[in-house]
Design goal:
Layout: E1 4-9, H1 13-25, E2 29-35, H2 39-49, E3 53-55, H3 58-63, E4 69-72, H4 79-88, E5 92-96, H5 103-116, E6 120-123, H6 131-141, E7 147-157, H7 175-191, E8 197-205, E9 211-220, E10 226-232, E11 234-245, E12 248-252, E13 266-270, E14 273-277, H8 284-298, H9 306-325, E15 329-330
Helix pairs in contact: 1-8, 4-5, 5-9, 7-9
Keywords: Oxidoreductase
Family: Belongs to the Gfo/Idh/MocA family.
InterPro entries: Gfo/Idh/MocA-like_OxRdtase_N (IPR000683), Gfo/Idh/MocA_domain (IPR050984), GFO_IDH_MocA-like_dom (IPR055170), NAD(P)-bd_dom_sf (IPR036291)
């Protein structure tokens, strides 16, 4: 397979530290260019990461006929504009999560990509790790009985950095946008269902442009099953998921952020004791790039198509509305 030539629109830390190395480690892709708002920063990043081309504007990168796909790690409020502009330029798009500021914007982005005939996906790298296939197989086998609930956490403390883009309300700042989307997407993926209602309580901080710095939520699924979760940017680091069944439970100690060069194990607890399921280290970002690469080159169906991004945003819209209005929101 001829490698997909990727362009990176922006030089965010997630791009430099994770996604660019992931694309380079993939079987299907190579990073051919990077663009920033100024040529100096673009050239500096290109030199640092051994990227052949650097552009001083996003428009220049999109005009490059050699670039086939773009990764967009820009602040959340810019996702819609540059996804649509990339699609109109004929580029396939991997857009950082959350894919948009609301479900309507996400739908417009998906429609623009469909009209242009380009592949479009939201960058939830953890979903491409094979341990989640193993977890779903264990649930299907009946080893932990019927699923009764899921609990997930994703918190970290970056509150001192008050100038961070995560703390700009108009830019899509807040913990639900930044890390709450992980437990939400995980529950939808594991249960293969859409929730029926959301109730969320949030901590909104005047020091941080009144974005939610912490949120605790309940998503109601069918048959009385629920996701309980909390997410935050002003709390100790946690990154865990637990699936509780009638006969046992599955504990995922590092649910979303994989440990570099370690086995991303999970633990199955039943009445017979507990067993650790070891999964060899795999680069989640490389696996994500390969899924898009096979879709672009071979027409393979994406495991998480654009429609999934729209559905996830609908849930996030309900969570944000619930937190702001302090009431239960039906979907």
């Amino acid at each position: 397979m001829e490698k997909i030539r990727w362009g990176i629109i922006g030089s965010a830390n997630i791009a430099k530290g994770s996604v660019i190395p992931g694309i380079k480690a993939s079987e299907t892709g190579e990073v051919a260019a990077i663009a920033s708002r100024g040529i100096e920063k673009a050239e500096e990043t290109a030199k640092q990461l051994h990227i052949p081309k650097a552009y001083g504007s996003y428009e220049e990168l999109l005009a490059d006929p050699e670039i086939e796909a773009v990764y967009i790690p820009l602040p959340n409020h810019l996702h819609k504009e540059w996804t649509i502009r990339a699609a109109e330029a004929g580029k396939h798009v991997l857009c950082e999560k959350p894919v948009a500021l609301n479900a309507n914007d996400a739908e417009e982005m998906a429609e623009a990509c469909q009209k242009a005939g380009v592949v479009f996906a939201e960058a939830f790298m953890y979903r491409y790790h094979p341990r989640y296939d193993l977890i779903r197989d264990i649930i299907q086998s009946g080893e932990i009985g019927e699923v009764r609930g899921i609990h997930a956490t994703f918190t970290f403390n970056n509150a001192k950095d008050t100038e961070n883009v995560r703390y700009k309300k108009e830019w899509g700042g807040g913990s639900l946008y930044d890390v709450g989307v992980y437990p939400i997407s995980a529950a939808r993926m594991i249960l293969n269902q859409e929730p029926q209602a959301a109730t969320v309580h949030g901590l909104f901080s005047e020091q941080h442009d009144d974005v939610d710095m912490m949120a605790s939520g309940l998503l109601e699924f069918e048959n009385g099953v629920a996701l309980t979760f909390d997410c935050g940017m002003w709390a100790a680091f946690r990154n865990e998921l637990e699936i509780v069944g009638t006969e046992g439970r599955i504990e995922v100690p590092s649910a979303f952020v994989a440990h570099q060069n370690e086995q991303d194990h999970f633990i199955v607890h039943t009445n017979d004791g507990k067993r650790e399921v070891e999964v060899p280290y795999l680069n989640q970002y490389a696996l994500q790039a390969d899924a898009l690469g096979r879709s672009i080159r071979n027409g393979e169906e994406l495991p998480y198509p654009a429609t999934d991004a729209v559905l996830n945003m609908k849930v996030l819209d309900a969570c944000l509305k619930s937190a702001k209005e302090r009431r239960r929101i039906e979907l």
